[in-house]
């Protein structure tokens, strides 16, 4: 409850940029894209500093799951290579205000909007990531076995996010950003994935990468007819009063 109270009462700034989503919805790719657009395509920093160092993360499971799964002092004694990243990910939520945030803050949130400050949408820039629930379910299954991003018009998404963040880039710059975000490059980028957690026995060593396939439609290999019918019914009921649609589910 203390953690949720902090989330709800934290002070939002006009310069804040949020990337909000349900886990395994393409958050990592969106974080990298939004950060680069918001920081004048600073590829050097994006390559040298991990996402967990460039974003403040609001996710209710980190403090509990990772702290229980790891022994920070033991890893410090072993001089593990990525101990700094692990410490940042397990930073007590209430201490987030102690982080140097003199520049614009980039914040990643996996918690429901109802638990964020009421003025979040009116004050900050919020990029919300939605992915069809069937692919999320499959991606989440593989994620927890280890303890996709999706196909879309990337240049159009870059232009839309750039406009939203009051940034302007040339066609050549957008082409370069698309190359940077290409899945085969993105999957190998150590500054965005969480594969380093294998060093701390959080992920199973032989399991696949944190960034898995980069494709949609994988749910069809896992959902039988009854499961598909139930899932589509749930999606229809929950999207009825929204304008959110998943084109790949239109069959």
UniProtKB/TrEMBL annotation:
Residues 15-150, 153-242 form the Sulfotransferase domain. InterPro entries: P-loop_NTPase, Sulfotransferase_dom. Keywords: Transferase. Belongs to the sulfotransferase 1 family. One of its GO terms (molecular function) is sulfotransferase activity. It holds the Pfam family Sulfotransfer_1. This is Sulfotransferase. SUPFAM superfamilies: P-loop containing nucleoside triphosphate hydrolases. The keyword Nucleotide-binding does not apply.
């Amino acid at each position: 409850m203390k953690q949720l109270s902090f989330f709800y009462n934290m002070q939002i700034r006009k310069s804040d940029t949020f990337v909000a989503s349900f886990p395994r919805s393409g958050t990592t790719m969106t974080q990298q894209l939004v950060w680069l657009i918001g920081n004048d395509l600073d590829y050097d920093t994006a390559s040298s500093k991990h996402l967990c160092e460039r974003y403040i993360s609001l996710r209710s499971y980190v403090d509990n799951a990772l702290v229980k799964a790891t022994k920070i002092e033991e890893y410090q004694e072993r001089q593990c290579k990525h101990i700094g990243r692990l410490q940042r990910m397990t930073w007590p939520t209430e201490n987030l205000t102690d982080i140097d945030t003199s520049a614009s803050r980039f914040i990643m949130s996996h918690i429901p909007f109802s638990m964020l400050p009421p003025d979040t949408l009116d004050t900050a820039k919020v990029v919300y990531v939605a992915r069809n629930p069937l692919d999320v379910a499959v991606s989440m299954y593989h994620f927890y076995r280890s303890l996709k991003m999706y196909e879309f018009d990337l240049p159009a998404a870059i232009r839309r996010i750039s406009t939203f963040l009051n940034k302007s880039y040339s066609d050549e710059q957008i082409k370069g950003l698309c190359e940077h975000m290409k899945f085969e490059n993105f999957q190998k980028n150590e500054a965005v994935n969480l594969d380093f957690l294998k060093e701390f026995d959080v992920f199973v060593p032989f399991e696949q990468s944190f960034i898995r396939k980069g494709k949609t439609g994988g749910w069809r290999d896992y959902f039988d007819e009854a499961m598909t019918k139930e899932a589509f019914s749930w999606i229809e009921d929950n999207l009825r009063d929204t304008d959110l649609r998943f084109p790949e589910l239109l069959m």
